Amino acid sequence: MKNKIVALATIGLLQSTLFASSQPNVVLVLMDNFAYGELGSYGGGIIRGAPTPRLDKLAQEGLRLTNFNVEAQCVPSRAALMTGRYAIRSGNAKVPFDRKAPYGPTQWEYTMAEMFSDAGYSTAMFGKWHLGHTEGRFPSDHGFDMWWGIPNSTDEALWVDNPLISDETRKMVHKSEILTSVKGQKVPTVVKPFDLKQRALMDGEMTDKAVAYIKEHAKSDKPYFLYIPYTQTHQPRTAHPDFAGKTGNGTWGDILAQIDTYNGKLLDAIKETGTEDNTIFIFTSDNGGDFFDDASSPGPWRGTYFTGLEGSLRVPFIVKWPKGIPAGRVSNEIVHEMDLLRTLSTAAKGKLPNDRIIDSMDMSDFFTGKTTKSPRESVIAYVADQVYAVKWHNWKAAFKELDAGYGSEVKTYQTPSLYNLYNDPREEKAISMEGMQTNGWVGTPIINALGAHLKTLKEEPPIKEGTPDPYQPKK
Ligand SMILES: [Ca+2]
């Protein structure tokens, strides 16, 4: 009898080990204000000042998307990525300027890190959170076993070092810091100030920590989820001293070389530990280029972040998973960053709550090559809490337009401007009235997609910006 119990227990142990080992490790690299046209595989590379051989090779080894969509600003994009919901739902439609009010997802939201954690993963984050800097809103409150990085954004590195302010004023300026905390720790530990010197070193340190994490956790039976939101190429843009001046093509070229090298280090660590086959590696970005003179290149598209233009919404996306995703595919099918939650939960054998609207769509069959079609046909493009456009296949209807994210006037249309993105990637020539006679049918699926979305906002009203914890939706 005893032997039987031992045997059963052994079988149970074997089963759980087998189950665990079939769950892939997941490394998610998120760039910042890094637009579509930077990597060699997206028409950038040497024309932007540095070749990107490692990330180009990654594209050859995985699936590369040319119609991967995000939200138009840092905070909403990260909220959508983590919750699998349009950012308006979680009260994070825009970057908040009131520094006292809480922002980021409420505790009620179910994040990607919580999904992985509940599925038995070790979880960690190194980098820029930008989803809250108050108690209960740090990464370690949202499913990460540990994190190291900055709670807000990198422009804060400029504030305290601003040469234009007096020392007296300097005392009043918010001092940004690198923080770290583990799950269950209410107040993060301050690691060091985040100033301009540290800003240049940041991504290098993140890479070293991520490499160490990969090497340590590759030995474990437990799979891991590692989220690496790099801080370059958000302003202020400063190459690490190891890369500054190396390309001879200016700061942008140096940083591009740095980005390629750092991603190469992550990929090397995965390969060296023999875990390459069952590791999902994703490279993408939170939004398009910003509105500074040295902003990231949108490639064939037009526009900066904080707009509804394709240059704001379409970012690079490469996913490699030798065990699950055929190599060398390129697709123009529509995918949204929200879709990663459901797709990765399928890969991780995780579960998602069914008591709320989750916009995320499962791309598993599309990513693994069972079908060539994405289940997603449309995207609602928000700028802050306003619907600017609706994308449907290769068509786009703009209800509002902004030429640039700063200093530009909002144009609002009574009848939306319609663009065929195949013919007009820069959205410069709306379909004419004559053209509408043959193309007017597109209005129907677009209005249907928008109508279906707006209906869900009525059924489940969005959480208001600045909502404190504890939050519970009204029944
Ligand atoms: Ca950003």
Q: How many individual β-strands? A: 16
Q: How many domains?
A: 2
* Main pleated sheet: 10 strands, mixed
Rg is 22 Å
Helix content: 25-40%
Mean pLDDT: 94
What does this structure look like?
The chain is α/β, with parallel strands linked by helices and 475 residues long. It has two domains: 2-165 and 175-368, 3-Layer(aba) Sandwich (Alkaline Phosphatase, subunit A), CATH 3.40.720.10; 379-459, Arylsulfatase, C-terminal domain, CATH 3.30.1120. The protein is built from 13 helices and 16 strands. It has helices spanning 2-22, 53-61, 74-83, 112-118, 156-160, 167-170, 196-218, 250-272, 310-313, 339-348, 364-367, 433-439, 443-459, and strands spanning 25-31, 63-65, 68-69, 122-128, 146-150, 177-182, 189-193, 224-229, 279-285, 317-320, 329-331, 335-336, 378-383, 386-392, 395-401, 411-420. Strands 7-6-5-4-8-1-9-10-2-11 form a ten-stranded mixed β-sheet, with helices on both faces. Strand 13 and strand 14 form a beta hairpin. The protein is globular, with a radius of gyration of 22 Å. The N and C termini lie far apart (51 Å). 48% of the residues are buried. The model is unreliable at 11-20 (pLDDT under 50). Calcium ion binds next to loops.
